[in-house]
Specification:
The two termini are 24 Å apart. This protein has one domain. Strands 7-6-9-10-3-4-5-8 form an eight-stranded mixed sheet. Strands 1-2 form a two-stranded parallel sheet. The protein has seven helices and ten strands. By secondary structure, it is of the alpha+beta class. Strand 9 and strand 10 form a beta hairpin. The N terminus and C terminus are likely disordered. Helices cover 35% and strands 24% of the residues.
């Protein structure tokens, strides 16, 4: 797993506030890890219900779209997310989207807690667990534009609801839905996140770049450094047939060029014959929706 930088003494008030938020979350969540599966799941459900209501107050029920510049706050269940003029808005109205991450976060934390300071282990566990959790919730690593169109097309009909519940997408879910789920999960576990509604370019073999609008995240590590985190493009572990069997987050410290872009190499890991071969799957170019290069 790509690691967040270890905790170090800082004076930046935003970094201090982020650390305090993480510590408060650890105080709430770590005792739940000590419970048996059934009791822990029930307790976590109650926590999600209470924390979601608390965080939704900061949201204000606004509409989030490419023109709005994304959001730093938790996305409440009454907020509309607009993914394009041809699609209906969607809402983050299913707590199960976050509950899916609990077991993975617990597993990751237990694997890491004896290898590094607990705050660092917890942050890494939340990021990794949220990545796997959204895959488990939606039922696939990637989405389907064709299925998306069938689910959320903006049809003129009195029988069609004005928005789509996040629970309706399933394997059709694409960058907007996946990033929104992970964004909210991070906030619920005390990790600050910004939902970026920017652009993603894929570098083709001939050197040309195919650009498209893209939703992804930026998060802040313990040193205050901003990091690109794209839930839709994780590091995938693939078997000999090329099928993804596991994923882990790909994290890139923000280092924008003069044009406000960042070029990265997305790796994948091929597992065959008991060996792991790491190779570059794609070269990508991110454009953020805000200029945070100075952060």
């Amino acid at each position: 797993m790509s690691e967040i930088a270890p905790s170090t003494p800082v004076t930046d008030p935003t970094v201090i506030a982020a650390h305090e938020r993480l510590q408060a979350s650890m105080a709430d969540i770590l005792p739940l890890f000590e419970l048996d599966a059934e009791t822990g799941a029930a307790a976590f459900h109650d926590y999600i219900t209470q924390k979601s209501t608390e965080l939704a107050v900061e949201d204000g029920g606004k509409t989030i779209s490419a023109g709005s510049g994304g959001t730093d706050t938790f996305i409440g269940p009454e907020t509309n997310l607009l993914i394009g003029t041809m699609y209906r808005d969607f809402r983050m109205d299913d707590p199960k989207a976050y509950e899916a991450s609990l077991s993975f976060i617990k597993q990751q934390f237990n694997d890491l807690k004896d290898k590094m300071p607990h705050d660092r282990a917890y942050m890494n566990a939340v990021i990794a667990g949220a990545t796997v959790g959204q895959v488990d919730y939606f039922g696939s690593v990637g989405g389907s534009a064709e299925k998306m169109a069938k689910i959320s097309a903006d049809l003129i009909s009195e029988d069609v609801a004005p928005y789509v519940s996040i629970s309706e997408y399933g394997q059709a879910a694409m960058c907007n839905q996946r990033s929104a789920v992970v964004h909210n999960t991070l906030h619920l576990f005390g990790v600050g996140s910004r939902l970026e509604l920017g652009n993603l370019g894929t570098i083709n073999p001939d050197g040309s770049v195919t650009q498209e609008q893209h939703a992804f995240l930026t998060i802040q590590n313990s040193k205050g450094q901003r990091v690109i985190f794209d839930p839709t493009n994780p590091i995938a572990y693939r078997n000999e047939e090329g099928v993804a069997t596991w994923v882990k987050p790909a994290l890139y410290p923000v280092k924008l060029d003069e044009e406000g872009r960042q070029r990265v190499a997305l790796d994948e890991i091929i597992v065959a014959g008991g060996k792991h071969e790491r190779r570059t799957a794609h070269e990508l170019v991110y454009t953020l929706d805000t200029d945070i290069n100075a952060a």
